[in-house]
Amino acid sequence: MGLVFKDLCRIFSLPQFPQTLQKQPTIPTDNFTMELQQMDVTPANGGSDRSKWLLSSPDPPPPWQELFTSIKEAFFPQTKNRKAKERKALLFLQTLFPILKWGRNYKATKFKHDLMAGLTLASLCIPQSIVYANLAKLDPQYGLYTSVVPPLVYALMGSSREIAIGPVAVVSLLLSAMISKLVDPSADPVAYLRIAFTVTFFSGTFQALFGLFRLGFLIDFLSHAAIVGFMGGAAIVIGLQQLKGLLGLSHFTNETDVVSVLEAVAKALPHEWYPLNFVLGCSFLIFILITRFIGRRNKKLFWIPAMAPLFSVILSTLIVYLTKADKHGVKIVKHFKGGLNPISVHQLNFGGSYIGDSAKIGLICALVALTEAIGVGRSFASIKGYHLDGNKEMVAMGFMNIVGSFTSCYTATGSFSRTAVNFAAGCETVVSNIVMAITVLISLLLFTRLLYYTPLAILASIILSALPGLIDINEAYSIWKVDKLDFLVCVGAFCGVLFHSVEIGLLVAVVMSFAKIIISSIKPSTEVLGRLPGTDIFCNMVQFPVATKTPGISVIRINSGTLCFANANFIKERIVKRVRDENEIEESIRGGIRVMVLDMTNVMNIDTSGIHAMEELHKDLTSQGIELAIANPRWQVITKIKAAKFVEKIGPGWIFLSVSDAVETSLHLKINGLNNC
Amino acid sequence: MGLVFKDLCRIFSLPQFPQTLQKQPTIPTDNFTMELQQMDVTPANGGSDRSKWLLSSPDPPPPWQELFTSIKEAFFPQTKNRKAKERKALLFLQTLFPILKWGRNYKATKFKHDLMAGLTLASLCIPQSIVYANLAKLDPQYGLYTSVVPPLVYALMGSSREIAIGPVAVVSLLLSAMISKLVDPSADPVAYLRIAFTVTFFSGTFQALFGLFRLGFLIDFLSHAAIVGFMGGAAIVIGLQQLKGLLGLSHFTNETDVVSVLEAVAKALPHEWYPLNFVLGCSFLIFILITRFIGRRNKKLFWIPAMAPLFSVILSTLIVYLTKADKHGVKIVKHFKGGLNPISVHQLNFGGSYIGDSAKIGLICALVALTEAIGVGRSFASIKGYHLDGNKEMVAMGFMNIVGSFTSCYTATGSFSRTAVNFAAGCETVVSNIVMAITVLISLLLFTRLLYYTPLAILASIILSALPGLIDINEAYSIWKVDKLDFLVCVGAFCGVLFHSVEIGLLVAVVMSFAKIIISSIKPSTEVLGRLPGTDIFCNMVQFPVATKTPGISVIRINSGTLCFANANFIKERIVKRVRDENEIEESIRGGIRVMVLDMTNVMNIDTSGIHAMEELHKDLTSQGIELAIANPRWQVITKIKAAKFVEKIGPGWIFLSVSDAVETSLHLKINGLNNC
């Protein structure tokens, strides 16, 4: 009789009384005909009726449709306000060259601000360009060249108003670390230079393509934690590289890892140390740090730390020139060719054996450069309250590097430290970049000869002074507090850069980030749910100690976004074990568990292995006399288990829209079943 | 005034009226002091009070604790029924050698069944062992050796009652395909054989270690779809390999892909084709297929298809011997050494240059062999209704292969076709394997000389006849129906095996399976929710057309298991765009959206990039005058956003336990806000 009633209930779908349950837990069971009539009167309230909504929901869009839609969205973004056709050409040009838009409203008052900002920027940019070229193992003029053409191109195409374009530390390090492995820059500087230009060309091409194909999400593949770790590691590596200049060493290693560098220093130090270099470098380092301290204490004096590097260069050059310290072991720049950017199209190296490696290095540089530039651009844009289109920025960066590679520039991007100075100096538009570029160009034409005597130790001290900004210990600490696994990724990237190489550090970061996703999504975790008092909400009983268990019913939630081959078996066995254990305890008190409600809220997707596991779970439970109820299967899941005929196996009456529906119905059935037994 | 009220509501936590809402949507707003008093009276019903449960939930266990617990569970499984100490040694032995347990109750009636099953098994096993050895490019006796020792070892240690141990097609193919790349079996058969034994030793060692360390989940890394595709591809590859024997070719390729094999056949066919081979092979193939058809029509005649291969071998050998067909181009086995398994410990090759490759091949063979054996064992165990411990089986398989490698056997595992025959023949225990092994041993001692004249074409036709069982088109079709991406994995594995090589096929399968997990868990998908009529349940409005939108409130659910670096930015921008679009529409009708409820039910985990994205979302919404409410953040998520101080930023009053709580409170605030404006 109990069975018959159960089946009838399933077929005719029982009503649910969530609010009245605690007052009327039992319903007279003998007259269930009357009850069935009631159901027909109140169909909209029935939990099983809601299940029908679930079971009759339309099919979700197939995966390729989703894919096509997202590609379509990416390639052909829909704009709601379509303009008239005749204006389309102008609009397109304005999109490509934002200067056409804002240039028409540009006023003299704005230019005053931009001029001041541009000049301040130039005074910081000139010494930084020289030192980063040095870091990239190129002659110093290439750094200055890179501060001329790319900013001008960006001024035409970019939409950020604050970003300062030019060479940056991390990209310079990346470039020198990776190209050095192909060609030794001291043995064959010409080939090294050609590869640097080729890499820049590839970087630009990749960046432009990413932007055109709207692949902006690619730069998201470096997680925040990975960037923090990577930057910290790179800063230390860059700092270690400066030991060469600071100590005045002639022999150094091409490797970038801590161990090799310290070994090289230890080996060279006893033989060729010139203390004068160290004294000079350290005194100016202290000077720069003091100016920065002053700038921080009084925000209006921001120009003091911004000018300090240029002042240091001029002063130290004068000192060396006047005291002839270069005869006493102070290393100086020496090679410095002035004049306009020479054309370098003929130096691009597309036929050589390094073409594949160049493309690879170009890709890595492109991504790192974009990550830095777009990060910087977005954070300042959000301060000023405008939106920066990542894809458009990528196109601008791409073209600026392509043009750069034709005019003796190496990979340029947005510099964080200079952008901050530009912002502090009150720039209004990207015109400050134009001012900066022209100022750098003028100094290239007139003053380069004067830089012959600049001591290398000063350059090292300027780089060293810029590094603390790259090491973000506070952020690392907050990552540690928030997410331990993210911190592991951060440490992995940091150690990879520090103890192996820059590209291994990046690789470690990307691989660990994705491994984290895999682990967190297949982690075979389940939790026992209980009802929160006075509600229909079922929650983890460990997380919410107020939650209470419903006797005779076991509610288990799968805490994994996907039920797939990699976790399905494990989850199934865990659930079976848990239900067995619970059953043993319950059996002695209240006659055992009758229904197991499987809350599938979190399972967004299931594969064939997952469905097999559920079928086995159903078989196992049935053999113990326990019914399986499924609560809240998602769209993909319900569609797939319907397609796999699993719904028919467990009976459509055992699929519910929510855990509370499932529990109410089960309670009902259980009580009725017991009364009828 | 509106603002002050809003803040007060946040602080004092508004009550929620889910059931009475439609009747009393508005509450008098002027006397909110009275209202606040009411709240204090009914705290347990308030949505915000529930939020307090959420906000005050204890910290979840740190990730390493979870890791440790799962390792601990894996290594030291807890058994509830601990036996007395003095029996522990016996129990341990019984666990290791289940024969000690069931052997004591073994009866003569059971033996009768096992004897019959064992003899039937042997008659199928002898020809299959010869042909699989041929497939593995080993002399035929090695196949027979492999059907002697491993079954005996398994009989002592294994717990499956039906599984038939010996060489199988896929592992043989895998072995020959991979070892052939190291050593050419026709050029240096001795070295090839030594590597085969070494690989077998490694396979066994890996299997035993997996079992001892309870790494049973490793075999789950081949998804169901991948196995179906891989087996199908392997079957076709094996079939193509048989063209050599069937056409009587002498020159053939060592490659296994379709293109190479067909090229080799096309090249060799005009020169050296002996039609007699083909005629002989095909006629026996047809004979075997007819017997199989008979066996299928009448289940009692299962022994006819089981005997057919042996009968074919004997008959064809006789024909060749009597007609001297080998003088007319019919290729025969020739090399066939009889006698007991020779000891091969001294042939294991641990010092050579192939040690790393051997270990790699051993690992792959170990996993594939285990996948097949445990799949077969489990499916028959579930028919007979007992549970098979995967880890224990792995240990048994491991030891049987280690002992096998010492006694001239190559990698053995559970064969699907022979297990089915064993089951059909009514085996009771693993004794049928012992009977089979002894029968094979006797034939090795007495009858091998008779097999000298066995034509190779017969062996090919026996293999060919077994292949259709490996190609499961029905299953592939049902995978297609259930999950298109899974089907893609299946096709990928199939094509990888078919057009490249067996190991590439496996690699493709594993990589595609994991890529699928990554894609499905970072797929940046969001859905708009609406309330199901008469409930507190909020559902996807596309999936449930009955769901209705609440005016002025936008409810969006993140449909991704994790909100991380790879999808956070994309999801954020999608939500911003969606809210803007909705706001535009709403503004014209009802004065715009006031609250955006973000349902985070599905987000099991968040990383620092995800939290950054949420902070930016909050900023963006605030700038539009829209409040952000967060509904149902999971344990990990609430803990992390608390740690990152995001809760303070949006205000703890805007975090709710469910969407309906969030919507009620927002509705309330909105109405009050509007009235107060």
TrEMBL record, chains A, B:
InterPro entries with a match to the protein in the record: S04_transporter_CS, SLC26A/SulP_dom, SLC26A/SulP_fam, STAS_dom, STAS_dom_sf
Alphabetized UniProt keyword annotations: Membrane, Transmembrane, Transmembrane helix, Transport
Originating organism: Handroanthus impetiginosus
Topology term for the membrane: Multi-pass membrane protein
Transmembrane segments: 164-183, 189-210, 217-240, 273-294, 301-322, 393-413, 419-443, 450-471, 491-515
Keyword field contains Transmembrane helix: yes
Pfam families, per the entry: STAS, Sulfate_transp
GO cellular component terms, semicolon-separated: membrane
SUPFAM superfamilies according to UniProt: SpoIIaa-like (SSF52091)
Superkingdom, taxonomy of origin: Eukaryota
Domain STAS: start-end pairs: 560-666
Signal peptide: none
Example GO molecular function: secondary active sulfate transmembrane transporter activity
Name listed for the protein in its UniProt record: Sulfate/bicarbonate/oxalate exchanger SAT-1 and related transporters (SLC26 family)
Annotated localization: Membrane
